Amino acid sequence: MYNPKSKKAEEFISHEEILDTLAYADAHKCDEALIDEILAKAREFKGLSHREASVLLACEIPEKNQEVERLAKEIKEKFYGDRIVMFAPLYLSNYCVNGCLYCPYHAKNKHIPRKKLSQDDIRREVIALQDMGHKRLALEAGEDPVHNPLEYILESIRTIYDIKHKNGAIRRVNVNIAATTVENYRKLKEAGIGTYILFQETYHKESYERLHPTGPKSNYAYHTEAHDRAMEGGIDDVGLGVLFGLELYRYEFAGLLMHAEHLEATFGVGPHTISVPRVCPADDIDPTEFDNGISDEMFQKIVACIRVAVPYTGMIISTRESPKVREKVLQLGVSQISGGSRTSVGGYTEEEPEDESSAQFDLSDRRTLDEVVSWLMEMGFIPSFCTACYREGRTGDRFMSLCKSGQIHNCCLPNALMTLKEYLMDYASEETRKIGEELIQKQLANIPKDKVREVVEERLMKIQEGERDFRF
Ligand code: SF4
Ligand code: SF4
Q1: pTM of the model
Q2: Where is average pLDDT lowest: 55-69, 159-173, 278-292, 427-441?
Q3: What is the CATH code of the structural domain delimited by 77-366?
Q4: Residues with CB under 6 A from ligand 2
């Protein structure tokens, strides 16, 4: 029985409802009148239901598909402007007791080197990340109660926030660790995490159980209900994601939006972010073994449809994707990307080339952060190192209501320009700095309020003189 408000995974992600949705979408994929109606609703920028969005995803009328793309770009522009928030993953440990078939860290992989960072290792990694210019991290760790207990994660978070090196500081730590208890989520909240991110991998229960044959993660309901427990534990911002390629993409797409609707219906606030990874090669993992891979074109359509369906939810893409794909999806809806990433434990302080034998996935985008920043600016985007909302307590429903009223824009652009200025002063190459300074001057004109623009100009001068950490 489908019930978005239910606390039970099988009810808020109802298999029958997804099958009905897919049948409905198939039946209407050429229904011009209905598609026009859905597009008209989407133009109100209030989002779409999983059924409506599934019709757009299935749509086979080329002109309507182009309209979806245009609308996605318009929404991206309206809600996120030219800003792209930058972050980096930090792998703490690849010890893992689970048996996920698509991940090289699965417990049966006996030849992958297992590593866990000590607090000193973490300090070195974080200093390396700070020296690149990063301010926002996503912590990653396998599930292993002996090697990576929650106390280890909490201690690591404390260590990271405490490191002050030159002008560097990690100002927001997001956490991507295994599903846990309300009590543990409460401790993560107390440790000051930003978003708690947990990928569902697949919403298809039967496939989920086949892909997770062993370990605590094999419990579909416990995993799927984790975001609820996180919110009950006081974490305001949670992130969803599926690993596209494991199951039929249309199934995952409907499941993902149903999960977002469930959070909105239950807690009054939808997911803070949605990540869109695709299965990719790694030690012991051959993506062709998963027969649900999607083309770049379909991947882009998925991003566009998510953007249209949940305008207020940030969308994240990682270095799994090539620069070419990243460029396209940045225009269609992605609002956060990683740069200069290493996906192995200790990867930021290893000698080049990276010891890839312990990486969770192979990187398609191997450029440095400086190269990514410069590339973004050359395309007209503003790389933003902003972490202001979390630090000002603008999280959860407070954040969402500011988003929905459009007021958040008064903060985002000024913060993006000021944090970019910090980056240019402290970390950028000469060439990048030159492009960035020009971009900042040009973008200042886009701050609508004269008073705010004046304050930003003043603060940019102060940053030039050595002061740091201004925010709205
Ligand atoms: S996906 Fe996560 S839980 Fe699964 S094997 Fe990899 S690290 Fe472990
Ligand atoms: S002001 Fe808030 S929403 Fe805008 S970029 Fe900064 S952290 Fe994100």
Answers
A1: 0.96
A2: 278-292
A3: 3.20.20.70
A4: 85, 384, 386-389, 408, 411-412, 415
